[in-house]
Design brief:
heterodimer, A: Naphthalene 1,2-dioxygenase Alpha Subunit, Chain A, domain 1, Rieske Iron-sulfur Protein, 7-stranded antiparallel β-sheet, 12 helices, globular, B: 4 helices, about 5% strand
């Protein structure tokens, strides 16, 4: 496969913005219970948080439930008969029981299993059994407590402030501008990998935010596809940008990668495909729109691996020539995290395509295993207190930027101040 | 050999592998391969690889997601070959280098069909 020899140069352009401090970065935010309390109130309590995509509520009266452990929030998201997407606290108004216990389903009315109070999926309280023996209770005042909810390009966000200081659009700022009209192919179909990890949420987010580690940690799985001994031995990114509170990196893909001669099953799985990207899900023409979007692989180099786009604080929308996938990093304590990866692929239409998807899912799972299990050792090492700071190189800009933005939100009196909107 | 291990005519020689290797979800197939010894993985890989192209051509005569039980079994066995190949072709050992086991990662929803779906909504 041909590639631009210019891109083979080892001196890729610097990606760290000039206004970002380049000194060592303190590790206290990864291990300090006090800092975690500040993140609870000032980061997760004030930022817009992504809950998923509209396709997860595929038809009128679909619903999903979610949990934001760090804010102790139980979230019910509904789609009503007129296709309005709403979010509520998943809490009954009577004795404050958790209302809906399923993770997803289709219903227009929710019954509390405790005393059968009922609610419509627009939040209205529709039934209070034996209401005459209550003391002037008003059904109209007993609806579900709403959570501010907005949708951007099919992604559902909530804000847990009583009155959000900033709109979702203000929050996304230049990120939303850069990704206007971005296609999200196969958004209605995903395979999912999940784990509860003994690690600070930032540690696991950081693990997916640089490609400097690829050759070392993933020598067998993707070491030779996202790095190249001759062209890019240290997995230098092709480009990187900060977009307000958010950040993006474009990683290198080895254009010369082909499955080795003796990788018979890998060759069988990818027979009939013209994409060389092992994390790609399909060679559909729909993917051309993604590759052509100005925000994807912005320098439009042919040796493109994948882009990491990290929406502050805890959501990644990553994509490559084969489609997109998302990471969610939900803090459950200072050193534990619930992590969810969704990889969007088309529903298979043939046996051969299904086998290829099994290979993709298998390889992705192995890569994730290498990434996330390493972070648990890293968390223990950080907690040993041996070191107080970490040294980050230019290719690790996203981690530096994330730490700087979190610090800014923690130190700012308001979300508006943190976003420089005032 | 019980009924639940029966494969389509012509694939009888693979029937001894069905009980362990024809796991019905991606997560089960990953777990089985992770717990197997390298000689067992290699034996399954060698036997299944030799018949993989025949199996695919046979399975392609049936509708995806709606095959007779013996064909669905052969499909799961063929999908398991992919897992065996990760050990044989990538790691050259049953599991990823330096990775703990059990590791607590789960494919809670795999690709359709025979992916499994026990996690949150897709």
């Amino acid at each position: 496969m041909a590639y631009d020899t210019e891109t083979a140069r080892p001196d890729f352009a610097r990606m760290t913005p000039a206004d970002l401090d380049t000194g060592p970065v303190p590790c206290a935010p990864y291990i300090s219970p006090d800092w975690f309390e500040l993140e609870r109130e000032r980061v997760f309590g004030r930022a817009w948080l992504c809950m998923g995509r509209v396709e997860q509520l595929p038809e009128p009266n679909s619903f999903i439930t979610r949990e934001v452990e760090i804010c102790k929030a139980l979230v019910l998201i509904t789609r009503d008969k007129d296709d309005n997407i709403r979010a509520f606290h998943n809490v009954c108004s009577h004795r404050l029981n958790m209302l809906v216990t399923e993770s997803s389903g289709k219903r227009s009315i929710f019954n509390c299993r405790y005393h059968n109070w009922t609610y419509r999926n627009n939040g209205d309280c529709t039934g209070i059994p034996d209401i005459k023996n209550f003391f002037g209770v008003d059904k109209k005042q007993c609806g579900l407590t709403p959570i501010h909810c907005d949708v951007w390009q099919g992604f559902i966000f909530i804000n847990l402030q009583a009155e959000p200081e900033v709109t979702l659009r203000e929050f996304l700022g230049p990120y939303a501008e850069a990704y206007e009209g971005f296609p999200y192919p196969f958004a209605d179909n995903a395979y999912v990998i999940e784990s509860n990890l003994n690690v600070n949420w930032k540690q696991i987010a950081d693990a997916f935010a640089e490609s400097y580690h690829v050759a070392a940690i993933h020598p067998a799985t993707i070491g030779n596809t996202f790095a190249s001994k001759s062209l890019n031995p240290f997995g230098r990114p092709l480009s990187g940008h900060a977009y307000g509170a958010h950040r993006v990196m474009c990683t290198f893909g080895n254009p010369d990668y082909v499955p080795p001669e003796d990788a018979h099953v890998e060759r069988l799985a990818y027979s009939g495909m013209d994409t060389g990207n092992v994390l790609g899900g399909s060679d559909s023409k729909k993917l051309q729109d993604l590759a052509n979007h100005p925000a994807a692989n912005p320098t439009k180099r042919p040796n493109w691996g994948a882009d990491v786009s990290w929406i502050f604080p805890n959501f990644n929308i990553d994509y490559g020539p084969g489609g997109f996938w998302t990471h969610e990093f939900w803090p459950t304590s200072v050193n534990s995290t619930r992590w969810i990866l969704r990889v969007h692929v088309p529903e298979a239409t043939s046996v051969r395509e299904r086998i290829m998807q099994e290979h993709l899912a298998c390889r992705f799972a192995e890569v994730m295993l290498e990434d996330v299990t390493n972070t648990q050792a890293q968390q223990r090492a950080m907690e040993s207190g041996a070191k107080t700071h970490m040294h980050l190189q230019d290719g690790e800009m996203l981690i530096r930027h994330s730490n700087a933005v979190i610090r800014k939100w923690v130190e700012s009196g308001s979300a508006r101040e943190a976003l420089d909107l005032d | 050999m019980t009924d639940k291990n029966i494969l389509p005519a012509g694939f009888e020689s693979l029937e001894p592998f069905v009980e362990y290797w024809a796991g019905e979800t991606n997560d089960i197939r990953w777990d089985r391969r992770s717990r197997a010894s390298m000689p067992d993985i290699q034996a399954f890989y060698d036997a299944m690889l030799a018949r993989a192209e025949d199996a695919i051509q046979h399975l392609e005569k049936f509708p995806l997601g709606d095959m007779p039980p013996a064909e669905e079994r052969l499909f799961c066995l063929t999908l398991s070959l992919v897992h065996a190949s990760i050990a044989v072709e990538l790691h050259e050992q049953p599991r990823a280098i330096d990775s703990p086991f059990p590791h607590g990662l789960h494919v809670t929803r795999g690709p359709w069909p025979h992916g499994g779906g026990m996690g949150q909504s897709a």
